[in-house]
Design goal:
- There is one protein chain.
- By secondary structure, the chain is mainly alpha-helical.
- 66% of the residues lie in helices and 0% in strands.
- Helix 1 runs parallel beside helix 3.
- The longest helix has 38 residues.
- The chain is elongated and about 75 Å long.
Length: 134
């Protein structure tokens, strides 16, 4: 199928397919006599795999590893679990960071609403040289 059809089926734009191809995430498709790329249904499946992995927070570098491991799912099961476990740890750390951010913003909003001074403590906190707002 032509690149426009493959992009449509994969739910991405044409530039994304070209980028994945340049990056080596997607094998270079054969070309028709006309010079157009001829993408396979497998290429569409690979792009969908990439997009699902990105939705789970995997970087393109990690996805490269996952694509290599995808070829032999049984042998590499442990490696996939290790990679997914590391990603889960990163997600947990991000949640802690977001909770701290939420707490700091909540505190600043409360101070801004009920504070005794006319100045905005949010702006003041962001303007501190060391940017410690927590």
């Amino acid at each position: 199928m032509r690149i426009s059809k493959a992009a449509e089926q994969a739910g991405v734009n044409i530039q994304t397919l070209r980028y994945y191809e340049r990056r080596g995430l997607l094998p270079r498709p054969p070309r028709r006599q006309s010079g157009y790329r001829d993408f396979s249904a497998e290429a569409v499946r690979v792009v969908r795999f990439i997009k699902r992995a990105q939705a789970l927070g995997f970087s393109l570098t990690e996805i490269e590893d996952l694509l290599r491991l995808r070829r032999d799912r049984v042998t590499n099961r442990r490696k996939v679990r290790v990679l997914a476990g590391k990603r889960l740890d990163q997600v947990d750390a991000k949640i802690v960071q977001l909770q701290r951010m939420r707490s700091a913003l909540s505190h600043l909003l409360e101070t801004c609403e009920h504070g005794p001074r006319p100045e905005c403590p949010i702006i003041e906190a962001l303007d501190l040289p060391e940017a410690s707002v927590s």
